[in-house]
């Protein structure tokens, strides 16, 4: 799929990777970009600078009514980028309750699935779905335990959606960056990619037809290690305990 003249919908577009994705899509020649988030105020200036090409939409991907409204508005979309996500930085046993785990699953897995279900019918062989996962879909950092579980579920879901969309020839991409310099990876002590680096890799992956996109040295280390020495990787990441 070519970015030039694509019509894209980006969730979680108001900051970090989402904001960079919007900017990179516009710079690459996308015909139109729908930028959605729970609060789009930070995008007002960018929208004014791109009249007719950038439209702001209020969207909480855990709200079925809001998803339905965005689906009805965006009938021309042929590139869906599911970027919205949350990280509550909680362990499995140390968390005070299951509330944060429920919220992470509701957003990172079920919300992303709901968006795929909403837009899959209108994506034909020239379309694409991009699900922003994490390399932590493949292994757990205990200090972000329920995030890792939700991202793992999201990766399995992405593989299933890919299989169901294969007959249409629709590209379904799982993007698995390592740590990225955003609020999602706050306090992480290790190598981090910039949001711009991730956005650039996503667009390159779409145009290359890649089904999996890995970004950054940390992601490369984990991906290689999980193939060759998975217990070594598990024990190394087990050092990153909650708190």
Largest sheet: 7 strands, parallel
CATH topology: Rossmann fold
| Mean pLDDT across all amino acids | 95
Going by CATH, the architecture would be 3-Layer(aba) Sandwich
Write the layout of secondary structure elements.
Layout: E1 7-10, H1 16-27, E2 32-37, H2 44-49, E3 54-58, H3 64-73, E4 79-82, H4 99-119, E5 128-132, H5 145-165, E6 171-177, H6 195-208, E7 212-215, H7 217-228, H8 230-237
Parallel strand pairs: 1-2, 1-4, 2-3, 4-5, 5-6, 6-7
Helix pairs in contact: 1-6, 3-4, 4-5, 7-8
Detailed description of the structure:
With 243 residues, the chain is of the alpha/beta class. It has a single domain, classed as Rossmann fold, CATH 3.40.50. It is 43% helix and 14% strand. The chain is built from 8 helices and 7 strands; from the N terminus they run E-H-E-H-E-H-E-H-E-H-E-H-E-H-H. The protein has a 7-stranded parallel beta sheet with strand order 3-2-1-4-5-6-7, with helices on both faces. Strand 6, helix 6 and strand 7 form a beta-alpha-beta unit. Helix 1 crosses helix 6, helix 3 runs parallel beside helix 4 and helix 4 packs parallel to helix 5. It is globular. It starts with 6 loop residues before the first strand and ends in a 6-residue tail after the last helix. The mean pLDDT is 95.
């Amino acid at each position: 799929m070519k970015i030039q003249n694509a019509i894209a919908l980006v969730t979680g577009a108001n900051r970090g990777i989402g904001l960079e994705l919007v900017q990179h899509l516009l710079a690459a020649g996308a015909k139109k970009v729908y930028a959605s988030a729970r609060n789009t105020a930070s995008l007002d200036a960018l929208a004014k600078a791109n009249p007719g090409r950038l439209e702001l939409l209020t969207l909480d991907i855990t709200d079925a009514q809001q998803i339905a409204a965005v689906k009805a508005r965006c009938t021309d979309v042929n590139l869906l980028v599911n970027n919205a996500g949350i990280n509550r930085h909680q362990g499995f046993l140390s968390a005070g309750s299951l509330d944060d785990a429920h919220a992470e699953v509701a957003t990172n897995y079920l919300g992303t699935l709901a968006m795929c279900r909403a837009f899959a019918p209108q994506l034909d062989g020239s379309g694409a779905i991009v699900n922003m996962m994490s390399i932590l879909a493949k292994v757990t950092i205990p200090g972000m335990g329920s995030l890792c579980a939700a991202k793992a579920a999201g990766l399995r879901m992405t593989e299933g959606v890919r299989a169901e969309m294969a007959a249409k020839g629709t590209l379904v991409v799982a993007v698995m960056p390592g740590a990225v310099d955003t609020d999602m990876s706050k306090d992480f002590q290790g190598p981090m990619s910039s949001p711009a680096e991730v956005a650039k890799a996503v667009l390159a992956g779409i145009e290359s037809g890649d089904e999996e996109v890995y970004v950054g040295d940390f992601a490369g280390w984990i991906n290689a290690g999980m193939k060759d020495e998975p217990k070594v990787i598990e024990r190394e990441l087990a050092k990153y305990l909650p708190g």
